[in-house]
């Protein structure tokens, strides 16, 4: 659910707002309050916000009930640009 939310948030040119809001509401029901607050800060571009990958790591730690040994900069994501179309 959180992965779908961030994928929709990063979607260009713009997210499907109905889907995006539905995912946000579902996340609000299940994540701990402190992580919901961080998610809100990040997705509204507040100055003191965490990187979205760091939020994913925190959610992973909650799911596994332990420190997973990962940091946000170790997670991969791809942007839709010419670089990722392969070597033609």
Report what the structure shows.
This protein is globular. The chain is an all-alpha fold and 88 residues long. It has four helices and no strands. It has one domain (2-79). Helix 1 (2-9) packs antiparallel against helix 2 (17-30). Helices cover 52% and strands 0% of the residues. The protein has helices at residues 2-9, 17-30, 33-43, 52-64.
Task: Give short descriptive properties of this protein.
disordered C terminus, mainly alpha, 88 residues, 4 helices, single chain
Radius of gyration: 14 Å
Residue fraction in strands: under 5%
- Give the overall silhouette: globular
Give the helix tally. 4
Largest sheet: none
Q: What number is the mean pLDDT?
A: 82
How many domain units? 1
Low-confidence stretches: 82-88
Amino- and carboxy-terminal Cα gap: 35 Å
- How many individual β-strands? 0
Secondary structure category: mainly alpha
Q: List SSEs in N-to-C order.
A: HHHH
Helix content: 40-55%
